[in-house]
Amino acid sequence: MTKTVLIKNIEICYTSNENPPVKGARMSKIDVFHNAYLILENDKIKEIGTNFIGSENRFDVVYNASGLIAIPGLIDSHTHLVFGGSREHEFAQKIAGVPYLEILKRGGGILSTVEMTKKASFDELFLQAKKSLDEMLLFGVTTIEAKSGYGLSLDTEIKQLTVLKKLNDTHPIDIHITYLGAHALPKEFHNDRSAFIKQIKQDLIMIQKEGLAEFVDVFCETGVFSAEETREILIQAKELGFGLRVHTDEIESIGGTAVALDLNAKTVDHLMALKEVDMIRLAQSNTIANLLPSTSFFLNKEYAPARKMIEMGMALAISSDYNPGSTPSENFQLTLQIAGNKLRMNPQEILTAATINPAYSLNISDHLGKLAVGYQADILLLEAKNLDYFIYHYGINHTKAVFKSGELVVDNRIRVEDSK
């Protein structure tokens, strides 16, 4: 049975209609519709226009968006959603200036979360992650990428991946799953790195066979995995049909971006220490530079050189990096506002970086990431005067309503199911 929805009286509707990956100056090209309307049919956008005239009686649902602006549902393409416990006990060390790699050596950091994740039950992990997803939805996030990586052993990695699969099946937010077994070196392998790399490669075969992930990621960084080790793992992943994503150039540049580009990775993520020679190659590629400004904010680190990247013609995405150690916040709107203030990206570039470019990196830009006829009806309605105001007025939740696949899932900043 067909269900039709009219969203009327939208003050201003904003969307990119550029073909992704959207690079350089094209990131500022946003289509703007005043006094707009959207007609939804089932889970798709059937019509978009201005100055709606006609009978409203033919629609099953009519939503009055007077005073609101509309943008595509936000896509957060780098999160670490599923983990046990939290790491507030490290906060004092962080603000005292203790480097992350030093915290890691002391048994903190990723290894601390690994222990808590191993001890947590499936249900405990599920409920904790669901609570975070619910918060993300209230901030207008309708699609995420989420990684494992707090297991460092096959059993716990599978536990994380199956939690993500269940969440994807039961929660309005779409989840694209990444296996990040190479997130840190487990203590038991400190004297035999090659054995752990071999184990990761063996585990990839099983994960592919069971259909537990779409992508594979590696943390290529000093003190974690070298460029050569990253290449070895990613070659195996690519041969098995996985998409590739790489944590790299966060603290030091050790060759991870070059490896990612050699293998046509979908994204390279962090990039605060990106070298100019890699910038040139990245601008010539279709790999997305996925920037994580909330991490720089929380760790008091330098920010990625976004302005230079855009001027050189790169395609940028902005993601939260939600995780317990360096970005313990589900407020993706704040991440975008930090991108404006600290990365010096304009609101149009930010919208592109939070919608169509991350959609491209997740292989879903043929049906998500823009407001266009035939696209999935993932729509965020914001209580903001205009797009600039959304980025300028920081730290609050501007969400009024969220439509996911044509269904109203958030209204008046409340989950619709919670208000029944």
What does this structure look like?
With 420 residues, the chain is α/β, with parallel strands linked by helices. It has two domains: 114 residues, Urease, subunit C, domain 1 (Roll), CATH 2.30.40.10; 288 residues, Metal-dependent hydrolases (TIM Barrel, Alpha-Beta Barrel), CATH 3.20.20.140. The protein has 15 helices and 17 strands. Strands 1, 2, 3, 4, 5, 14, 15, 16 and 17 form a nine-stranded mixed β-sheet that branches. The protein has an eight-stranded parallel β-sheet with strand order 6-7-8-9-10-11-12-13. The chain starts with a strand and ends in a 5-residue tail after the last strand. The mean pLDDT is 96.
Question: Top keywords for this entry?
Answer:
TIM Barrel; 420 residues
How far apart lie the N and C ends? 24 Å
Q: Output the CATH homologous superfamily of the largest domain.
A: Metal-dependent hydrolases
Which geometry do the CA atoms define? globular
Number of strands: 17
Profile the largest sheet.
9 strands, mixed
Number of helices: 15
Tally of separate domains:
2
Rounded mean pLDDT is 96
